[in-house]
Amino acid sequence: MAEVHNWHLEREMSYPYPGARPKRQVGFVFDINRCIGCQTCTMACKSTWTFGKGQEYMWWNNVETKPYGGYPQHWDVKTLKMLGPQAWTSGGYAGKTVFEKKDGDLRDESVGYLPPAPEWRFPNIYEDTATGTSDKGLSLPVHSNFFFYLQRICNHCTYPACLGACPRKAIYKRPEDGIVLVDQKRCRGYQECVRACPYKKTLFNTEALTAEKCIACYPRVEKGEIPRCVAACVGHIRLSGWINPPDKAREDNPIDYLVHVRKLALPLYPQFGTEPNVYYIPPRWVSRAYLFQMFGPGAEEAIEARTKPDRKLFAVLKLFGSTTRTIERFVFDGDVVKGFTANGKAVVEVPMEEPFYVRPFHDKAHEAYRFNEP
Question: Which of 186, 175, 45, 211 lies closest to 123, judged by CA?
Fold first, then answer.
């Protein structure tokens, strides 16, 4: 086991391999407050990548209803229970990660489990359930009425548990963009990656007998385009781009700005220790204790910033869903926010106030009359 620095935990931690951050790391920010649970992202991913044999119950992208929903069912409740006490102090995370539990043996069931087949078959079970009980024999907490939608893809973690667990070394993290992929030629279907991933985002193809997972739509990313789930989102809740570690964060990078500068977007279950690269803007109406467990410290401050955004933050939020190109730099002049590619090409310009046009009832140029619909 090597010692690596995990900035989510604000400390060093154990990991099976020495730390090696990629040249660039793909990153995402999802604004939970905007999601309507329409599953358009889910179907966009499904129709693009997982429509073959053995993929009938495979969803690389899914939107589940919390607190009771999950794909596979109750993946987070089970993993949190195995992880044991999770304590945060002013100095960071004081508990153990999935790599440090039981001396870091990723094949030990205390840090991972292999879900049975039925738990993968119902990605929308408990949808829109505010309170209720589980049929899985779990003791779930009673809470005030609330639910929210949680959008999930592979986190393309900085320290992937799937990679660390694979005995065949079939899983690798691309150095050019940080995307985590499975080498299908090396994979033998042992499912150790499925067992180890605390987010359960490595899946098993029952026909090919190999592991498969979200590939971050790398053919699109390589061309400077955003992934399918981001492009298809009708609620404009998703923003994709590049995330830097804190010491290299750029204020004109929209992902860095939301994560590092404004601390508005937080990682999902940072206590797992994988340093995920998908970040969430927490929902405003949910129990703060629940959000603390899910996103760690900073949830209260993030909600406050989201509830009362200043003009610049509001401008960056307007970039969500504004273009199919990857925005690597933004400029805000007070009235307009502009997004640019890596080579400086402007790809989007969003005004802070939408213009209002009043057209005459009688259009003399076209000899047309315009009537307002009731």
Answer: 45
Residue 107 pLDDT grade (very low, low, confident, very high; cuts 50, 70, 90): low
Cβ proximity of 186 and 166 under 8 Å = no
**Cβ within 8 Å of residue 246, ≥6 positions away:** 7, 260
Burial of 303-313, coded b for 16+ CB within 10 Å and e otherwise, reads bebbeeeeebb
181/81 Cα distance (integer angstroms): 28
In angstroms, rounded to a whole number, what is the distance separating the alpha carbons of residues 299 and 189?
Answer: 38
| pLDDT at 1 exceeding the cut of 90 | no
- Please identify which residue in the block is written with the tokens 């998703």: 238
- Both tokens of residue 163? 């990679």
Q: Are 140 and 77 in contact (CB under 8 A)?
A: yes
pLDDT tens for 33-62 read 999 999 999 999 999 999 999 999 999 999
Torsion of Cα atoms, 212 then 215 then 216 then 220, to 10°: -140
Predicted structure pTM score: 0.93
Residues 6+ apart with CB under 8 A from 176: 22, 23, 24
Q: Is the dihedral angle over the CA atoms 49, 51, 55, 59 positive or is it negative?
A: positive
**Stretch 8-17: mean pLDDT:** 95
H/E segment holding residue 346: strand 346-351
Banded pLDDT at 109 (limits 50, 70, 90)? very low
Domains of the chain with bracketed CATH: 2-219+269-289 (3.30.70.20)
Among candidates 29, 48, 59, which has minimal Cα distance to 321?
Answer: 29
Beta carbons within 8 Å of 331's beta carbon, 6+ residues apart: 252, 337, 338, 340
Region of poorest pLDDT, from 26-30, 118-122, 194-198: 118-122
Determine the Cα–Cα distance for residues 342 and 345; give it in Å rounded to an integer.
7
